[in-house]
Predict the 3D structure of the following.
Amino acid sequence: MNNQIKVTLLAVTPDAQKLIEEAGRTCYLSFDKIGANSASDFIQRLIKMGHDSPLEHACATFRIENCSRAMTHQLVRHRLMSVSQQSQRYVDEENFHFVIPETLPKEHITEFQNDMETIRQMYKKWRNKGLKREDARFVLPNACTSEIVVTANFREWRHIIKIRTSQKAQWEIRIACTEILRILKKLAPDCFCDIETGLNIAAE
Ligand SMILES: Cc1cc2nc3c(=O)[nH]c(=O)nc-3n(C[C@H](O)[C@H](O)[C@H](O)COP(=O)(O)OP(=O)(O)OC[C@H]3O[C@@H](n4cnc5c(N)ncnc54)[C@H](O)[C@@H]3O)c2cc1C
């Protein structure tokens, strides 16, 4: 079964841009310059000069569903991000769902699905032979879907989004990070306005 990847915002720092301005202006003791729209210019100037640390004061948390373990394995390499992921030790995978690679030609989809069914039967076989989930999972594919909750500060999101939406990144993580960027651009436009991706960012 090929599910559509789903990215949901779970939490974000309230008034994130105001907080970043407040923190950043501490460096210059320029609180007198705070006004109704002052955060916008200030944050963009911070970013231009590479003074990124004030962006660490705001965080965002996302749930990503129906993505492959191949994708989450890449995502969790970002060690400054906090992660909680569906466990293959505690959650049974007898009826696992899987992601079909976007690049797979249509004429091969049935063959791919049949391979997944074969693996499902292998997993069941080893479970029936008494292997625990944590060991029966050794036969599972990278295509298995997973669910993951990730939290990072805005500086780290900028870093992750830049490298994971580049043309060199894998298609699935590019889709996830492009969606994260779309959401963050709406919530904190000045913190992310300088980042563009090769993928279309769907309008609301
Ligand atoms: C296109 C692409 C292809 C990739 N291919 C592979 C691959 O084939 N094999 C593979 O193993 N990984 C691969 N990776 C993963 C990559 O090597 C990183 O592990 C991953 O992108 C996390 O990087 P990060 O900068 O967020 O680092 P983190 O490890 O999360 O570190 C965060 C930041 O801390 C600093 N930092 C952390 N540790 C050190 C250190 N020891 N010394 C100095 N500075 C440090 C760096 O500035 C780093 O950016 C690939 C990544 C991309 C984007």
In short: The longest strand covers residues 59-68.
